[in-house]
Amino acid sequence: MRTTINLAEDALIAARNVAQRERLSLGDAVSELIRRGSTGGTRGMKQELQPALRGRFALLALRDEVVTPQHVRELMEREGI
């Protein structure tokens, strides 16, 4: 079913993270998150640590490398941005 909804920014970030991690469309990810919330479980989805949200930004795990502008450019090229 097609509908339009307004999401808080942190909810959109969470849904996009689930969509990317589980290789789902954004709509399917939102549906799955609603189902999880209504049942209180993770229902068939991978058990992984979610990045914590602080304000509008997800906090990622500490990495053993410095992210350089070259890293950013490579990622942008790979993602088509």
Walkthrough of the structure:
- The protein is mainly α and 81 residues long.
- It has one domain (9-79).
- It is built from three helices and two strands, in the order H-H-E-E-H.
- It has helices at 9-22, 26-39, 69-79; strands spanning 52-54, 57-59.
- Strands 1-2 form a two-stranded antiparallel sheet.
- A hairpin with a 2-residue loop joins strand 1 (52-54) and strand 2 (57-59).
- It is extended, with a radius of gyration of 15 Å.
- The chain starts with 8 loop residues before the first helix and ends with a helix.
Question: How would you summarize the topology of this molecule?
Answer:
Elements: H1 9-22, H2 26-39, E1 52-54, E2 57-59, H3 69-79
Antiparallel strand pairs: 1-2
Helix pairs in contact: 1-2
Question: What tags apply to this protein structure?
Answer:
81 residues; mainly alpha; two-stranded antiparallel sheet; 2 strands; 48% helix; extended
- Using the alpha-carbon principal axes, give the shape: extended
Structural class per helix/strand content?
mainly alpha
Q: Assess the beta-strand content as a share of residues.
A: 5-15%
> What characterizes the major β-sheet?
2 strands, antiparallel
Gap between N and C termini: 30 Å
Q: What share of the residues lie within helices?
A: 40-55%
Q: What strand order characterises the main sheet?
A: 1-2
Mean pLDDT across the residues is 79
Total separate domains:
1
> With helices defined by DSSP (H or I, 4 residues minimum), what is the helix count?
3
The total count of strands amounts to 2
Poorly predicted sequence stretches spanning 5 or more consecutive residues? none
Specify Rg, calculated over alpha carbons.
Answer: 15 Å
* Element order: H for helix, E for strand: HHEEH
